Amino acid sequence: MKERKLSLLTVSVLFLIMLGLGTSLAVVDRTVTVTTLGTMASVTSLSAQAKNISDNANATEVSFGTVTVLTNKLAGQYVWITVRSNVLGSTGAWELEIYTRNFTTAPSTTTWGYQYGGLKGSVAGHRVPLVWKVYCSTHTVGDPPANLANWMFVKDRWDLDIPGTPDDESWGNAHQDANGNSYTNIAYGGPDYMMVIEPGTGLTGGVLDTDNTFAVYLGGQFSVAASDVYSTIVRFDLYHE
């Protein structure tokens, strides 16, 4: 019985070897081809929904409420962003940026200075600078945001370079500096990935996101605000270059 089992095993091994040889030595008698084509359309999507930090419920706006202390303040809502795009720029990626556009024409530098981003007061010259942080998912952010070192300022499309400073604070340089970096970008990506510029990851770094959604948190520098009513429209641009 033992010899019979060995014989069957030997036959099986020889069969597999011959089968393999038969495949590798096959002769192609004829080849035909079929042309196969497909066109991928440009597909982009972007939505922004304000949500309460307290319960993640949808909100109609981002609000700081009435601030009664001269301090930095975290808004009571975050903005939940959903974004996808297969339209790529010369860098091989799309970008998403945040900004304000508080004026329809160039404002007076005598009245408003050189920086215009953030909340605009009803009195000429009154402004509350806004700062932002983004995370791949909801995050615990301290209120008040005492240390603004890891926050970025919300730039305005009319921002000018401040005379006498070593840096160029203009909108053009913030949108894309000499090295191709954008201070205003909060995320970038391609058809199959997205990078979110979480704090400390750098303008060209970021954290890989897997669900095409992320949270934007906003803070206001009410520590330098005059008594007034302030408002703005925060804008998000999905673009490629």
Summarize the structure.
With 241 residues, the protein is of the alpha+beta class. The chain has three helices and 13 strands.
Helical coverage, percent range:
10-25%
| SS class | alpha+beta
Task: Count the DSSP helices.
Answer: 3
The largest sheet, given as strand count, sense and whether it forms a barrel, is:
5 strands, antiparallel
Q: What proportion strand?
A: 25-35%
Whole-number mean pLDDT: 90
Cα-atom radius of gyration = 29 Å
What separation lies between the terminal Cα atoms?
Answer: 77 Å
DSSP summary, beta strand count: 13
Residue runs with pLDDT of under 50 for 5 or more positions:
1-6, 13-19
Shape: elongated
- SSE string, helices as H and strands as E: HEEEHEEEEHEEEEEE
Number of domains: 1
Give the arrangement of secondary structure elements.
Blueprint: H1 2-24, E1 44-52, E2 72-85, E3 94-100, H2 109-112, E4 119-121, E5 127-128, E6 130-135, E7 152-153, H3 171-175, E8 185-190, E9 193-196, E10 207-209, E11 213-221, E12 230-231, E13 234-239
Antiparallel strand pairs: 1-2, 2-11, 3-8, 3-13, 4-5, 4-12, 6-7, 6-11, 8-9, 9-10
